[in-house]
Amino acid sequence: MNELALYVMSVFYIFAGIMHFAKPKLYLRMMPPWLPAQKAMNYISGAAEVFLGIGLVPLVTRAWAAWGIIALLVAVFPANVYMLTSGKFKLPKPLLILRLPLQLVLIWWAYQYTGQSLTR
Fold it and tell me: Which residues, other chains included, contact 52 with Cβ-Cβ below 8 Å and sequence gap of 6+?
């Protein structure tokens, strides 16, 4: 993967993390009702996205940040399933279905940085 893709991914996660704080109601709606401490989980996951996005940039933390992003994507997968199955979201059903395999694409993208370094 090239360096531009790394920076795009970094900005993507930093922005997504900030949005957890700027628009918490949006993220709380996505959470399945069986999850405990939803407000805390929203802020923790938002902070994790910001820190992991920042961690992608320095070579010394890149692999750890990429593995952290993979773990986070796996952890939030139930929210994507809930969005599809709850009927609470007015998005087109094909778009909600597309979110599920998109998680695999995002995992693959992060995996590209788990063991390789970018040459400068």
Answer: 13, 17, 65, 68, 69, 72
Question: pLDDT (tens digit, 9 = 90+) per residue, 50-107?
Answer: 999 999 999 999 999 999 999 999 999 999 999 899 988 888 999 999 999 999 999 9
30 vs 90: CA distance, rounded Å? 12
pTM (two decimals) = 0.89
What is 56-84 written as a DSSP string?
Answer: TSSHHHHHHHHHHHHHHHHHHHHHHHHHH
Q: 58, exposed or middle or buried, with CB in 10 Å at 0-12, 13-18, 19+?
A: exposed
CA distances from 94 to 81, 90, 97, 98 (A): 13, 11, 5, 6
- Residue boundaries of the structural domains of the chain: 3-111
